[in-house]
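Below is how a single chain appears once it has passed through the pipeline. First comes the sequence as given, then the structure the pipeline wrote out for it. We keep one example in the README because the format questions we get most often are answered faster by looking than by reading.
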Amino acid sequence: MTAEAALLELAGVSKRFGRITVADSLSLRFQAGETVGIVGPNGAGKSSLFAMIAGDLKPDAGDVRFDGRSVLRLDPATRCRMGIARTYQVPRPFENMTVFENLLVAAYRGGQLSRLQGYTVAARILEETGLSEDANRPAGRLGLLQRKRLELARGLATQPRILLLDEVAGGLTDPEMAALVEIVEQVRQRSVAVVWVEHVVHALTRAVSRIICLAGGRLIAEGDPQEVLANPEVKEVYLGVDIGA
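Resulting structure:
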């Protein structure tokens, strides 16, 4: 990492639930336009990390700074309007609204766009994410994979400066995976930082420039994707699973 000011910084962040530690004095930095993958076994604290960044969860200690400003006292909606967007492992669309209406809500409320701007952005994102044919379908009638696409699309519609992707690749076919990687690259080219938690590690290696490995809320390794995945301690926390497969 360079000495350049970070877009997002976690400084000594800690969080415990009883005896379970999900963040143990974590200090991480993310730059604008950077693509970063986060890996680790179940219970490593990956989703909790996203929750603390987005404002769904308050750390016990430490600070979360966005664009040089502490956001600990800000609610999730305010953080979203500042440019922090996240997706969820289990998609959370407005099920009675159409796909297009879901994107409009994200564009208006999260992106603070005008009516015309919102329509323009929503139409573009429908095309980018392959949801154009489902634009007028109620979100509650989508299958799981299309719901995942919508979850990604809603995040993009908020016009984020940093996009937190939480396991959006699971269950995708190879062509769908390639399309997802292409979307991530398009987002990065707009100087948006992408931080991607994923168990489908071969998708990360095609999309990210840096990988972080967490286990038990601790930072195990960080750096070049191939070097991190070859790290003996990283392999050990995966309990022998071939994470490069």
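The chain has a mean pLDDT of 91.

See the next section for the split statistics.
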